[in-house]
């Protein structure tokens, strides 16, 4: 099967009479349809470029302006205050146009200039409006008149029916905070974590930095902020992601899980058919910019989308943006297959993709030498992979096959194991599921791809995503669409297969060919050993917390995120007996090309609350008062981070500038060496309209997670699903004697229940 010949465009043989040329009409038809498809895409992108380029106006508004100006001209009114006359005089030097033609052309030119000026004015006005963030700091439920007026103005200047990238040029730039403000907030954040002598020494270093070296570094950073679109994002991408030489697996890549309780079909090929088709539908919407911009209230967020691959190099990786990729690469039982996604100039239907996947599952060919564990190169250290890539994959069939993998729309793994939530053994089943998505067998996911889409033998699915090109909300948006489209739009036939008919005329998937020498196979084994050591050290605990959810937390009149973060602080103190520097991922997508910022969730206020919770002498009233203070402080820090007044990205960029200038800062060196022993992240639900949980309460997401950030710490991801469920994902390392993911999970459940009972509310303890 794998060696089946593809159709060729022509064949020829040399005979005594000359050359006998035989054209294949079917192949020529496919070439024609493929070219037609490409030109359609180019036209759509060109059209969208025009629409986005003139937004918030529309191309038709140009005609309205022209007609309006010409009408006033024929009414003997000069709307240009003499500008049209000057344009007319300039055109008069040609001597080839009549007076009427010059009048018309002058009016059109003035109208076009007026139209462009109006667009620029509207766009600048919208940028000024979006630079206001006071609405975020207003008390919940109490909106001032000024904020209402502001929201009305935003709505007016936002135009009608915006496309995905319509707002990008109107988003403000990320501001650079003042050095003194950042230093002051930093000292406040570490005050509860340091002994008095250590804090005094740090205070001296910080104040010295703020008055001496800090202003010099800040000047360069300000200069960059005026010149670059975002003063953080490019350095963050390069130094945090691309220059890291350790493994991407576990350390950087993260995962997304399937629906928690629902398994729509147990046929592996059918689930792959529907969900791969759904991913391609999403990509088509991306290409056509048909996805609505993500907004908070009326305020748009920056968009970063597309499918990418991270290419390794000895010093630093590079990101390659993939456009118009017409195939995927599928891994199964140690073999790689190239699967075309289009036939007859159209996207394959779900049943046709299922057919192609089933052909791969039915194939019984053996892996070629070195092929089965080849992807372990992407799981180990980056330098051996980069050198191996240059030495053994730069020519011949290896280069062709590697190009097929790296230029595929995405990578698919048909996993041979069965995964997913098992109510009879929830802990083991979810932990195994999480570890499978995070690292698998270390050689059956291509960790360089924007994402590896994984379909398990029992039909459960998941995703492993590369971090450098996009943060979790971008992948989350895609994943929500895929799960909803699979469940509520595409569906399955009664026998569990995709709806529709097979198509025997579609060529079989092509088996990729490799010629991997023994020296390269030795490097693959070395990378695999490195990856296995890392994977086997991951202690993972994933569980659904269904005692209560967002609905009950809202009755406490507090932010659900602040509630969970304070529960995490209480759980961590119970688990470790101390407080630790805590990282909560926030976002700066209110600004152009914004990505993430850090909320330092361990504060003096949160520590006071935790100490009150473990002190039996404290009353409920005292604990509630401290909870409210700590919750309000957390929400303030989160809002400051979102509005460009965070601490850590500013200090990171100041450190980068100091390295470029060749100067050392004891303060910055100390700050950036501090470990995040508790790293947390909330996975937001962005498209709640896709899931009607009142009608379909079982269709809840499991969320996703990531590996531990510190060798002696915890990584915690959580998602608040609907009103009554929170899914947690906890990671740590077996090699650390102080940590235990399951122990932390028990403390977290206790902390959640203890806090909710402070408010006189009873969690559902039956489960």
From TrEMBL:
TM spans (from-to): 104-126
Keyword vocabulary terms for this entry: Acyltransferase, Fatty acid metabolism, Lipid metabolism, Membrane, Mitochondrion, Mitochondrion outer membrane, Transferase, Transmembrane, Transmembrane helix, Transport
Active site per database record: 467
Membrane topology classification: Multi-pass membrane protein
EC number: 2.3.1.21
Entry protein name: carnitine O-palmitoyltransferase
Keyword Endoplasmic reticulum in record: no
Pathway, per record: Lipid metabolism; fatty acid beta-oxidation
Pfam families given in the database record: Carn_acyltransf, CPT_N
Superkingdom of the organism of origin: Eukaryota
Compartments in which it is found: Mitochondrion outer membrane
GO biological process, alphabetically ordered: carnitine metabolic process; carnitine shuttle; fatty acid beta-oxidation
Top-tier EC class: transferase
An example Gene Ontology molecular-function term: carnitine O-palmitoyltransferase activity
PANTHER family: CARNITINE O-ACYLTRANSFERASE (PTHR22589), CARNITINE O-PALMITOYLTRANSFERASE 1, LIVER ISOFORM (PTHR22589:SF74)
Protein's organism: Prolemur simus
